[in-house]
Each structure stands twice: as C-alpha cells, then as structure tokens.
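Troubleshooting: if your tokenizer reports a length mismatch, compare your output against this known-good record of 185 residues.
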Amino acid sequence: MGVINLRGADDPEPEPVNDPASSIYTDWESVYQDNVVGIYQLVFRRVGNAADAEDLAEDVLIRTLKTLRLPAPVHNVRSYLVKTAKTVLADHWRSHYAAQNVELELEQLPPSGLGNAASTVASERAQRLLGLLPDQFRQVLELRFLRGYSVREVAHEMGVTESNARVLQFRALRKAAQFEREVLA
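Known-good structure output:
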C-alpha cells in the first residue's frame, strides 16, 4: 500500500517538526513545562516513592534554575537536567543511608547482641553474599563496612576518585541486595 500525497501542487511544504537537536529554550517556563514530568519519572524510577520523587524532582529543577544559562539548545538543557538529577539522587542516597552516629548506635545494642548465634548466621550470610560479588564491588564494601574506611580512604586504596568510589559503593550495595533476593532468599 503506497503513501497518498494529499497536498496540492500550490500547497507549500509542511513545516518541519521541531527537532530537539536544533530547538532552543529561550525561557525557564518552557524548560519547566517540557521537562518536569520526565524528571519526575526519572527520579521516581530510582526511588520508587512518590513523595521523595516529588521532593527530589523539585530539587533538580531548583538547582538547574540557579545555574542554567538561557537561551540554550534543548539537548544541552536535557542533558544538564539528567546530570543534575543524578547528582541529586546521589546526594539523596548518601544522606539517606549515611551512618552518622554509629558509635551511639553500637552503645545502645545489648552486650549479648554482639556475639550471639543470630549475628554468626548473619555474618556467614554476608560472607557468602560478598563472595558472589565481582572483585571491585566486594573490595569497596569490605573497605567501607568491614574495615570502616572513609570514602576518601577507599578511593585512595582502590586508586579511583572519591566520586567513583561512591558510585561503586552504591552499585555494589544494589547488586548485593539483588543477589540477596534472588540467590540467598
């Protein structure tokens, strides 16, 4: 079946569809309108919680508003929004899972809770889980959580940047959780 041309001989060529590669954002309102839903969806897929996703998407847009220079090409703005969203998500996970008062938490544990059979089982399970991980993931988790290294110390030990060490830690924790659900359940 062929394509039928409904244009007459005198009709002008149709206007090309806006190509994001050649489009330019001139004002913040258009940036917001075109991207707010996409940023929310991106963040929601990572956190799985509507309330957190709304707060984080708002944070992404506010950070972008402060630093974005307009006019700018659409593809540059979207790329910048995604990078900002990744940074906001990393900050969220870092603050959400940071052990800020470890000494206080350890003091509140009952003395018998540190060496009982349940912790031995948990320790064995953790060792099996670490054994399933790739070497780099296992190393970052051992340094951070078993040896108590700071992110800076882990980065130095592994020969990577601090931000790369954080990313490795996040990915290692995510992979370990996946293995725990799939393999050790």
